[in-house]
């Protein structure tokens, strides 16, 4: 289908995509990128029309969100473990043969270099449970972990009980993890299900189906007067998917997303958000263009991403 036809369908079928206006003394979040490792992606496995054999080295980003008034801190994703050799053997094999991950600086080190420690983090929100997003949860001994409820099915029995499993059974700390069921969440903009996390309009957890069970995104205000950021996790692995210049590669059996149809529907919602709201900055977990432009710059902690 032609790109313009897809856009027309979105405009006819999408939900009301207005975002809530700021209130008086509106709270917001300061958002900073964090170094959390790199990996290689084969373009033709994630987008249609890719150059055959082209490999792109992408970051596996983490983001630090700091509430403007009560100073609560939240990490979105933890990137890759520095000791990735201790992932389950299935994952280690993938890293050796396909993804070639490397971690010069993990999330905990990135925090410390900017003046915080893992002990200072109130919440860790994982977009999903793939190895390049769960990082090393052990240093975050004081944090409450936030995940989509559906991810629980991936961790049972998990590794090491199942030696072929790709998920560590103990990746989420017992007694400190909140499993969210989004079925009763309210809509926001083009997204059918969202949770007002701080209950003040500063940060929303977004149900983001398609990639993996329990996949979630974040929508945060970045200013008191209408700036936003949308942290899309693995909703897309390449910017040409969000602009609708490419489609998701592969079939249901060899696709980067567990539910290709649901993933494409969610991409269309993000595209609608971008087109209708110029003050929403959208970032991917593996956002190579953002990283290339901002590496070692003020968008990374202890700096912050400029609001639109």
UniProtKB/TrEMBL annotation:
Name of a matching Pfam family: Lactamase_B
SUPFAM superfamilies: Metallo-hydrolase/oxidoreductase (SSF56281)
CDD domains: metallo-hydrolase-like_MBL-fold (cd07730)
Keywords: Hydrolase, Metal-binding, Zinc
SMART domains per record: Lactamase_B
Cofactor: Zn(2+)
Alphabetized GO MF terms: hydrolase activity; metal ion binding
InterPro entries: MBL_superfamily_lactonases, Metallo-B-lactamas, RibonucZ/Hydroxyglut_hydro
Keyword field contains Transmembrane: no
Domain Metallo-beta-lactamase intervals: 59-286
Annotated PANTHER family: 102 KBASES UNSTABLE REGION: FROM 1 TO 119443, QUORUM-QUENCHING LACTONASE YTNP-RELATED-RELATED
Similarity comment text for this entry: Belongs to the metallo-beta-lactamase superfamily.
Protein name: Metallo-beta-lactamase domain-containing protein
Organism encoding this protein: Hypholoma sublateritium (strain FD-334 SS-4)
Organism lineage string: Eukaryota, Fungi, Dikarya, Basidiomycota, Agaricomycotina
């Amino acid at each position: 289908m032609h790109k313009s036809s897809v856009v027309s369908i979105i405009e006819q079928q999408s939900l009301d995509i207005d975002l809530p206006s700021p209130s008086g003394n509106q709270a917001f979040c300061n958002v900073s990128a964090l170094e959390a490792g790199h990996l290689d992606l084969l373009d033709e496995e994630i987008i249609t029309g890719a150059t055959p054999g082209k490999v792109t080295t992408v970051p596996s980003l983490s983001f630090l969100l700091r509430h403007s008034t009560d100073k609560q801190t939240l990490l979105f994703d933890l990137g890759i473990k520095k000791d990735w050799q201790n992932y389950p053997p299935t994952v280690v094999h993938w890293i050796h043969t396909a993804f070639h991950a490397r971690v010069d600086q993990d999330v905990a080190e990135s925090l410390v270099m900017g003046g915080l420690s893992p002990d200072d983090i109130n919440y860790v929100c994982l977009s999903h449970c793939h190895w390049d997003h769960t990082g090393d949860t052990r240093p975050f001994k004081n944090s409450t972990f936030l995940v989509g409820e559906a991810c629980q099915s991936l961790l049972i029995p998990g590794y090491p009980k199942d030696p072929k499993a790709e998920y560590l059974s103990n990746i989420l700390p017992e007694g400190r993890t909140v499993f969210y069921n989004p079925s009763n969440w309210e809509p926001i903009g083009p997204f059918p299900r969202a949770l007002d996390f701080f209950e003040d309009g500063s940060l929303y957890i977004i149900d983001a189906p398609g990639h993996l069970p329990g996949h979630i995104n974040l929508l945060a205000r970045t200013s008191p007067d209408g700036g936003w950021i949308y942290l899309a996790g693995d909703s897309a692995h390449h910017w040409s998917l969000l602009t609708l210049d490419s489609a998701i590669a592969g079939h249901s059996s060899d696709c980067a997303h567990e539910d290709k149809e649901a993933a494409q529907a969610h991409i269309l919602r993000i595209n609608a958000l971008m087109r209708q709201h110029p003050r929403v900055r959208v970032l991917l977990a593996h956002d190579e263009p953002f990283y290339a432009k901002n590496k070692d710059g003020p968008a990374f902690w202890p700096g912050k991403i400029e609001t639109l």
